[in-house]
Every structure is written in structure tokens, then in C-alpha cells.
Amino acid sequence: MALTNTIYNSPVFQQACNQFDLAADILGMDAGLRERTKRPRRCVVVSMPVRMDSGKVEIFEGYRVQHNLSTGPAKGGIRFHHEVTLGEVAALAMWMSWKCSLVGLPYGGAKGGVVVNTRELSQNELERLSRRYMQEITPFIGPNVDIPAPDVGTNEQVMAWMMDTYSNHKGHYDPGVITGKPIALGGSLGRREATGEGVAWFVKAYLEDLGIPPEKTTVVIQGFGNVGSEAALALYQWGAEVIGISDFTGGILNRKGIDLKAALAYVAQHKSLQGFPGGEPVSNEQLLETECTVLIPAALERVITEDNAGKLKCRLLAEGANGPTTNEADRILAERSDIELIPDVLCNSGGVIVSYFEWLQNLQNYYWTKGEVFDKLYRMLAKAKASVDETQKKYQCSRRTAALVLGISRVAEAKAKRGLFP
Fold it and tell me: Does the domain formed by 43-183 have CATH 3.30.2350.10?
């Protein structure tokens, strides 16, 4: 049963709870342990006054949800978006718990969010908001408590401001509090590419399982941000043809192949794909229903729904975003034998894995080459894939449920073994 009578109640949080319940039923989890494992451990809601460039003071609302603290410090990104809600942040924190557990990281799940349209802020206003958010959540985070990272609407520079704010509060340089930082401030080589690189690794691995070669692979990517663009570049270098990309303004379709370098240069100059001359303009909805080998939703959650799940024309659906497929769409896809799904908690786990590597490097003050980072990443991805495939065969369930069974069972076991503090 979803947790409907809580402060987190929202469609996306109910979606995460429904996924949990399917896995918990397979595991035969008793009611007490089920509720302890499902419910977020802690949430913080902050009100942030920020002086704008005009001199006016505006109040922004921000959140930090720590879902699980039983398996290590919490880990999860910070999202700046105008549609952020507490329920969305709680769902993302829950998925982070299962993701970290699934790939064997000593973390619990967390997530943060600020309700803001960053396109309406100047660089100075963005810095003031970033520092204020970090100032407000400082009592609840730390290298051994909760380690934030970038997410939608944030980047290396935002992480640099936040790390600096935290370090100033503590009175010493403390890079281990944040991952996804610039290299000059203790960031890890490969971290920026890691999530998209991981998505591409899984796509290639499952296409090889299906016997589909790169030269016969066409790719459509909904969301041409950090994850989508890095996945596109990695798959293009592998030999696939990227025929569709999109952002919040709409999509571009070119069945002969999109010039990715030109698209990235255009976005860097114009801040969006709108007007990009490298293909035919299409809507995000049309792009999702384009015939292709691989469809990668890499933007926000709940874009594959009961309305379009039956219209998808891909062979492989690789979830670069968190929660892009609703429960209703999952049921429709489960009845379709023509589409293989790579679930989000597996598919986009490369980002948190390399965040873990960054944290380790910060704690040790010893830094790895990019080759060392990716070598370790690929080994962890391969191990996770093998575990999920084996679990799917064991329980005769969907790949998503198999991934969740693995992640949830490890968290639940840790909670059971630790017991209840009096």
C-alpha cells in the first residue's frame, strides 16, 4: 500500500511506493520491517531569503530528504527546478537508497531540491541561492552524514559554491562533503561523464545480448542535458546513429543522424535546442514515439505513461532519468515482448558510483586517472547487471522488479540486523 496519508503524498512518491510494494511482496517482508524500510528517515524544509540583483528580497523554498541512514551516510543530488515538490524529492531519495544498495555502495539514499527556475536567475543570484541553501542544510550534512551532488538544474559550479560555504562554516577545507565538484576543488576525473557513460554501457551490453550490432542501432534521447548528451556521445563513438534529441523547448529529428558536436555548440551558445538547424523540429511527445532501436528518457520523471506506452517503437528502453515510467506504463510494457527495459536504478547508476569514487579520493587525498575511474566503473556495472539478470530469472519477474528486489533486500537486511535502538 502506498503511503498516501503523509507529507510526501504525490503521484511520483506513490509510484515509488508501488514499485517498493511489488518487490517487498516477492521478498515476503513482514509489515514492521516493510514500513521501516519504505518510509523516509528524515526531511528538512528550509525557507531561504535571497537578495536579488534588483535589491528586492525573494523567499525560496528548499528540501532535503534522507531516506535511509542504516547502511552508511546518505547520498543524493540537489535539484533546482520550478516544479520541485517535497513528494518528488522523497521519491528520488527512495530510489537512491535502492540504487546505492543495488550496486554495492556503502550509502543510504537522499535527495535535495529548491523550487526555482534557474533560467530566470543571474549568475550572482544563482550563487547567492546556492550558498543560502547550503547554509540552511549544513547542520544535517557532512562527509559521514549526507553527501550531496549535482542533479537537474545544478552543476559543478553550484557544487563548488556549496562546498565553499560548508567549508567556511566548518573552518577548514572539506571537499568530501560534496561530489560532482570541479577537478580543481577535488572533483574526480570522469564524474561529469559518468551517468551518461553508464547509460551507454548498459545500452551496449543489452544490445549485444540481443545480437544487435552498433551499425544497425538508432538512438532517440529525450533530454539533452548532461546525462543525455554524454550518453549520445558515447553511443555515437560506439557506432550507433543518434537520430533524435530534445530539451524543454522541444525535439530535433534527423533520420540520417544528428551532428552532436554542432548540437552541443548550439546549446552552449543559445542555452536550448530551439532553432537548431540540424534536423526537423518535433515535440517531446512525438520524439518519444519515434521508431528507433534505443529510446533513452533522460530528463524528468513520469514521461512514459499509459497514454504512450503502447505507442513506443523502440527495441530497448533505457531509463537515463529517475522514474520516467509510471506504474500504469510499466504494466503495459510488461505485456509487450518487443521492448526490453533497463530500469533507472540500474541504468543511471554510473553517476553515483563515480561520486563514491570521488568521495573516496577526497577522504584519502589520493586521486586516480580517468582510465582507472572508468575501469573500476565498468567492473561495478558488469557485476550489477549480472546480479539483476540472475535475480530476474530466479523470480520470473520484470527487470525493474529484480533490480528493486536486490536493492531493497540489502537495505532491509541491514535494518533487521541493526535492530531498533531503545
Answer: no
Q: Is the pLDDT of residue 68 over 60?
A: yes
pLDDT digits (tens, 9 = 90+) for 289-313: 999 999 999 998 999 999 999 999 9
505507442: which residue's cell? Answer: 311
Of the residues 111, 181, 204, 385, which is catalytic?
Answer: 111
Tell me how many helices (H) and strands (E) the chain has.
14, 12
Per-residue pLDDT of 188-219, as tens digits, reads 999 999 999 999 999 999 999 999 999 999 99
Quote the cell numbers at residue 419.
535492530
Grid-cell match 536486490, residue found: 406
The model's pTM: 0.95
- 192-342 sits in which CATH class? alpha beta
111: annotated active-site residue: yes
Q: Where are the domains of the chain?
A: 43-183, 192-342
Beta strands in 15-159 (DSSP E): 42-51, 57-66, 74-81, 108-115, 146-150
Paired strand residues for 76: 148
